[in-house]
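My main concern about presentation is that the manuscript never shows what a single data entry looks like. An entry of this sort, consisting of the sequence and the corresponding backbone structure tokens, reads as follows:
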Amino acid sequence: MSGEYFEGGYPPPAFYFTVTIGDGMQVPDASFSEVSGISIEMETEAVVEGGENRFVHQLPKSIKHPNLELKRGLTTLSSPLVKWCKDTLEGAFIKPIEPKTIVVKLNGAEGEVLRAWALIGAYPVKWDVEGFNATKNEVAIEKMTFAYTYSKRSK
């Protein structure tokens, strides 16, 4: 691979990714079927120029990030990730919230990291089990939602 081009000049497939949580150690049950919410957006404030009705200036205000959502099949309560979510969301704020860094890596066909995003200061804000339907033969899915302070693309 050379420069910014991928094999054959095509973008990489988005289905081969890994997620690490914490101090870089791979959480054994951090296999997810879907990751979303890696985004950065600048909020702006509309300011109307006095005496000039043709212009509305958009001034930069702040940077915001949506919540990160991770989806996967249901796992056991002994999962370190489930324990972190459970402690944070069911802890009634008795213990302080423990923010961690979540790293999402897009991998190439041979396992090489093509792109990586670090989501700093992440903590669970929602833990959701998708609805059950007796007429479908599907895996039971849990969705974990995390707020994060900021993100940085490292590759």
About this structure: The CA atoms of residues 42 and 110 lie 36 Å apart.
